[in-house]
Each structure stands twice: as structure tokens, then as C-alpha cells.
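Duplicate of #3305? Posting structure anyway:
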């Protein structure tokens, strides 16, 4: 029998990508207007009012720019690199805030109960911060450490400062499966006396997320054999999918190398092989030819 491919199901959803950060940078004079613009880099920009004369032009403002986020799969731990730029003609006492309820933090808290940080600081200069557990806002700022770390509170005019931090291993919560963040297709691929269920799961998320697939045997095999189907799931060293009647919910456990996907890194793999034993050829009992 010639091998064929039968597409049996496709789940599509609208991608909902939240802004990564909420940003604020302080300087004197007091800012009179703040405008946040969502973009690929979740940039934040502050604008300041002048008197409109050539002698006292409005400063260009101070900006945040995300450079990169490196995630260490299969864990959701990550390092984030970003820059702060003071494009004004005066020194700035800076601070910046992150919303840790959003990706890639996933509800991460930056400090232990004793106040010790759950991250390491890299980049140009050291800084301090505080965390509001009610709002999940983590605010960082420079500090006069009065030791070898110096006074990092101020950014000079026209200065760009590169900052970086890495979360400690195992401190970032594993995200839950959100069906609105990915799409999946399931194909039936025939071979001798059995079929394989081949899944392709894709996302537009720039950050690694887990996924889940629903497998309904009633959409694959005929009713007269549905109770006799033997299934071998991939991989065979993890608990099988949960089952409700003939419907299975498939997702890989945390720690599996293939459990997380992001834009450009799809999951594409056979997730199960089905047969009816050696007496009957399951290829003769497939939907819709029952």
C-alpha cells in the first residue's frame, strides 16, 4: 500500500505577546510627560517640555533598549542584556522598572526572603533595587556604594550604559501552557501495519514557551476498532498523556529537551505510533473511509 499523509486536525490561536517591561528613568527637571511605546524591543522613552525657544531646547530624553535575552533550555532561566542611553545635555539619576509577571520572568521574584538576590549582575557598573510583590514590579537604580563599586547613580550627558543580569539556576518559574501562544497541526503518516501521528507546533513568541496537543482517536480511526487501538507514545520514558475517553492531552514534562518552543524553533516530531496488532492492518480502518 502506498504511504499517504492525512491531516486530521489543526488548532490555531491568536498570539498574545505582552510587553516585557515597564520603564522609568528619572532626571531633573521633572518629566512632564511619559510615553511608552511597545515594539519588538519593548522600548520606553521619556519626553521633557522646554519653553520652545532656541536658547532652551527640550532635551531628547533617556531611553531603554533591550539587546538580547538568552534562555537556557530546557529550564526557563535566562540572562538579559540591555542599554540605557542619556541623550540629554545633563547628568541623569536613573532607575528602571521590570514587570516580572510577564515573559521571560514568568512570575520570578528577584530576592529571597532574607533579601539576598536571585540573580548576578554583569555589564557596566553595579546597581541596587527593590521589589513590590503586590504589583510584581522590580525597580533597579544606581547607588553610591562608598566602596570599590563607586557611585553609579548618575549617567553623564550622552552616555550609553550596557547592563546585564542572569537569573540563578532554577529560580524562574516554569510557565504554564497557554493555547493562545502557539498553533499546531497533526498529520497521520502510514507505514507497514501502523500509523504515526506527526505533530508540528509553532509560535511567534520570542521567548521559549511550553505547548500542548489534543489527540482525539475518533478523528483518526473508525468506531469499530477504536477500543482496540494500541498506542506507543514518544518519548517512552515520560508519563503517558492524560486521557478522557478517547481524547488524549499531550504535553512534554519540564526538563525534556523538546518541551519548549519559540519563534524559529518549532517542535516537529512523531508523538505516537498506533496499530491493531498483527491480525488487522490499521491502515484499513482510518477516518473518513469507515
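Output from current build:
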Amino acid at each position: 500500500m502506498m504511504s499517504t499523509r492525512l491531516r486530521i486536525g489543526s488548532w490555531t490561536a491568536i498570539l498574545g505577546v505582552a510587553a516585557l517591561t515597564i520603564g522609568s528613568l528619572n532626571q531633573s527637571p521633572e518629566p512632564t510627560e511619559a510615553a511608552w511605546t511597545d515594539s519588538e524591543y519593548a522600548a520606553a522613552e521619556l519626553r521633557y517640555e522646554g519653553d520652545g525657544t532656541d536658547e532652551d531646547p527640550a532635551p531628547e530624553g533617556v531611553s531603554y533598549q533591550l539587546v538580547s535575552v538568552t534562555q537556557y533550555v530546557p529550564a526557563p532561566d535566562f540572562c538579559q542584556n540591555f542599554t540605557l542611553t542619556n541623550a540629554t545635555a545633563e547628568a541623569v539619576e536613573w532607575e528602571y522598572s521590570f514587570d516580572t509577571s510577564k515573559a521571560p520572568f514568568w512570575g520570578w521574584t528577584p530576592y529571597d526572603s532574607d533579601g539576598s538576590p536571585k540573580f548576578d549582575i554583569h555589564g557596566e557598573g553595579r546597581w541596587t533595587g527593590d521589589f513590590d510583590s503586590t504589583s510584581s514590579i522590580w525597580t533597579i537604580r544606581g547607588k553610591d556604594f562608598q566602596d570599590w563599586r563607586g557611585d553609579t547613580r548618575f549617567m553623564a550627558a550622552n552616555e550609553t550604559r550596557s547592563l546585564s543580569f542572569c537569573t540563578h539556576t532554577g529560580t524562574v518559574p516554569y510557565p504554564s501552557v497557554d493555547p493562545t501562544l502557539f498553533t499546531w497541526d497533526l498529520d497521520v503518516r502510514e507505514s507497514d501495519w501502523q500509523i504515526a501521528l506527526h505533530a508540528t507546533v509553532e509560535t511567534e513568541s520570542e521567548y521559549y514557551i511550553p505547548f500542548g496537543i489534543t489527540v482525539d482517536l475518533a478523528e483518526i480511526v473508525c468506531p469499530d476498532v477504536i477500543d482496540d487501538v494500541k498506542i506507543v507514545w514518544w518519548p517512552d520514558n515520560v508519563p503517558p498523556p492524560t486521557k478522557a475517553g478517547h481524547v488524549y492531552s499531550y504535553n512534554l514534562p519540564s526538563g525534556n529537551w523538546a518541551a519548549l518552543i519559540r519563534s524559529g524553533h518549532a517542535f516537529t516530531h512523531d508523538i505516537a505510533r498506533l496499530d491493531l496488532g498483527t491480525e488487522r492492518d490499521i491502515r484499513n480502518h482510518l477516518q473518513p473511509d469507515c
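Confirmed duplicate; merging threads. Confidence is low (pLDDT under 50) at residues 1-60. The chain has two domains: 33-167, 176-284.
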